[in-house]
Amino acid sequence: MVDHRITDITNYLEITPWLRTAGMPTAVQIKSIADAGYQVVINLALDESPGA
Asked: What is the pLDDT of residues 15-51, one digit of tens each?
């Protein structure tokens, strides 16, 4: 089984113990985010952004 850590998401950065920022996660990484206990993901990408 492949380990999909949230720290592998492009530009992942821990701001505080309860707030992280990163680039656009893949569908597998979204599941990893949920599995890590996060309940909210805020997408700030524009509709025209690649991967948005």
From this structure: 998 899 999 899 899 999 999 999 999 988 888 877 6
Full DSSP string of 11-46: T-EEEETTEEE-SPPPHHHHHHHHHTT---------
Residue with tokens 């599995």: 35
Tokens linked to 14: 């821990």
Q: Output the six-digit token pair for 43.
A: 């997408």
Distance separating alpha carbons of residues 45 and 16, to the nearest angstrom: 22
**Is the four-CA dihedral 52, 14, 10, 28 of positive or negative sign?**
negative
The CA-to-CA distance between both ends of the chain, in Å, stands at: 27
The whole model's pTM is what? 0.73
